[in-house]
Amino acid sequence: MNKAYVIVPFISLLIFGGFYWNFATKYAEKQRAKEVAIRKAKEDKIKEEQQARRVAVEDAIRLQEQRKKEKIERDEKDRLEKEARQNAIDARDKSYRDQEKLAKQVDRLTKEITVEREAIAKIEDTKKLNREEEAFLRQFVKQAESNVKRLAEVIDKIDAADKARAEAAAAAAAAAAAKSKS
Questions:
Q1: How far is it, in rounded angstroms, from Cα 90 to Cα 177?
Q2: What does the pLDDT read at residue 67?
Q3: C-beta neighbour count of 161 within 10 angstroms
Q4: Per-residue pLDDT, 126
Q5: pLDDT tens digit string along 24-59?
Q6: 146: buried, middle or exposed (CB in 10 Å: 19+, 13-18, 0-12)?
Q7: What is the pLDDT at residue 109?
Q8: Using CA atoms, how far apart are residues 49 and 84, in angstroms rounded to an integer?
Q9: What is the C-alpha to C-alpha distance for residues 36 and 73, in angstroms, rounded to an integer?
Q10: Per-residue CA distances from 75 to 64, 68, 124 (Å)
Q11: Which of 13, 158, 174, 181 lies at 20 to 30 Å from 143 by C-alpha?
């Protein structure tokens, strides 16, 4: 029995050693396979993350470029709207200035028209007075000419009467001289 105490544990030890060696070699391989699988999974995960990051970066860059383009277009649109608005304001201001200028010009011309109408009315009055004076003067000249003719006739009559009286006086003097000589 003494040998049984040594042989059974020794055989058990050998069986255990076989199982252990088999287990140890397979376990190390399994552990290495697990480590390789874990490492491969990590590498795959890292590759996927890198790929996802690359895609995300590309998307971000594309979105950033698109936003830049949209911002440039929006800024250009805003600039054009501001220019159009400023041009409209300038045109409105210019039209107001022109309107005020033309209103002042209309007022000035209206005043000038009033002054000119008054001047024309004065000229027409002067013209009417001049025509009336001319008509009066023509009539006066005709009357003066007729007066001159009448005066000439009166003077002729007076001269004829003076001649007749002088002749009558000369005839009376001659008759008185003839009477006195006789």
A1: 122
A2: 93
A3: 12
A4: 93
A5: 778 778 888 888 888 888 888 899 889 988 998 999
A6: exposed
A7: 92
A8: 50
A9: 53
A10: 16, 10, 70
A11: 158
pLDDT reported for residue 182: 62
The 8-class DSSP code of residue 182 comes to -
- Among candidates 99, 119, 95, which has minimal Cα distance to 107? 99
At residue 151, the pLDDT reads 86
Flag residues of the chain having pLDDT under 50: none
Residue 23 is encoded by which pair of tokens?
A: 């287990």
- What is the distance between the alpha carbons of residues 21 and 147, in angstroms, rounded to a whole number? 180
Give the span between the Cα atoms of 129 and 146, in whole angstroms: 25
* Residue 16: both structure tokens together: 């255990």
Closest CA to 91 of 102, 81, 99: 99
Inter-CA distances, 102 with 94, 108, 115, Å: 12, 10, 19
Distance of CA 47 to the CA centre of its chain: 64
Q: What residue has token string 């383009």?
A: 69
Question: How many Å from the N-terminal Cα to the C-terminal Cα in the chain?
Answer: 254
Residue type, 104: K
Q: Is the dihedral of CA 116, 118, 121, 126 positive or negative?
A: negative
